[in-house]
Design a protein that fits this description.
Blueprint: H1 5-15, E1 20-25, E2 32-38, H2 47-58, E3 68-74
Parallel strand pairs: 2-3
Antiparallel strand pairs: 1-2
Length: about 80
C-alpha cells in the first residue's frame, strides 16, 4: 500500500513542529521518497541524530507503506 507525500509531511511535523519539510516522490509509486527536513531542533545534533528524529516520526510506516526514504536534514541559517 502506497503513502502520499502529504501524509509523510504531516507525520514529520507532528514530531518536529518547527520543521520545514519538502517531500519528493522519486518514482511516482508512493513508496520511494526523498525528504528534505530543516529544523532548529537539529542544532547541536550530528547527522545521525537528526535522521533518527525524522525516522522516529515515521517508524510505523517504514518498511511497510514507505519502502524507501532518501533523507537530507539541516539546521536553518540564522539571518
Amino acid at each position: 500500500m502506497a503513502m502520499d507525500a502529504t501524509t509523510i509531511e504531516q507525520m514529520i511535523l507532528a514530531k518536529i513542529p518547527d520543521a520545514k519539510v519538502k517531500i519528493e516522490d522519486l518514482r511516482g509509486d508512493g513508496e520511494h521518497y526523498a525528504a528534505y527536513v530543516s529544523s532548529a531542533s537539529f542544532a547541536g545534533k550530528n547527522r545521525v541524530e537528526q535522521h533518527k528524529m525524522v525516522y522516529e516520526a515515521l517508524k510505523d510506516k517504514m518498511d511497510g507503506e514507505l519502502h524507501a526514504l532518501a533523507l537530507q536534514t539541516s539546521v536553518p541559517e540564522i539571518k
